[in-house]
Amino acid sequence: MPLTEAEYGNRVPVDGYGPGFFRVGGAVHRGPVIVTPDGVQPWAGLDDRAALMALADRVDLLFLGMGADIAHPPQGLAEALDDAGVRVEAMSTPSAARTYNVLLSEDRSVACALLPVAG
Question: I need a surface site. Which of 30, 64, 77, 100 has the fewest CB within 10 A?
């Protein structure tokens, strides 16, 4: 069966990651990031709820990459985002980046907020 490479058009995928960094749209970003189809921005981490709430009306689903392992988001974060119209799926950062890319290639309204993996 032939493989078909994912097409992103002008949308921004997560190209890769490593200890403390992400490669997004061909550029390296250090520390936590928020990635949307339009671009990437630095993120102050789980205490920075305002940056995540700003995704309301822009995306339907947010993949929350919690680092190397699966973890629960902080108390009330998922509920606050859900109330704003953004569904949250918490998972490991590698899984969040891959899942974001798959749904992005399907032209879905998604974003990911990623905590780096340790080195």
Answer: 30
In what helix (H) or strand (E) does residue 73 lie, and over which residues does it extend? Answer: none
Judge whether 33 and 115 are in contact, CB under 8 Å: no
Whether residue 37 has pLDDT greater than 90: yes
Residues 6+ apart with CB under 8 A from 106: none
Query: Where do we find the tokens 């630095």?
Result: 42
Start-to-end Cα distance in the chain: 36
Give percent helix, percent strand, percent coil of the chain, each to the nearest 5. Answer: 20, 30, 45
Question: Rounded distance, CA 59 to CA 102, Å?
Answer: 15
Q: Residue 119: pLDDT above 80?
A: no
Residues 6, 13 contacting (CB under 8 angstroms):
yes
pLDDT of residue 1: 63
Q: Assess whether pLDDT exceeds 70 at residue 58.
A: yes
Q: Decide if pLDDT at 102 tops 80.
A: yes
CA–CA separation, 13 and 6 (whole Å): 10
pTM of the model: 0.93
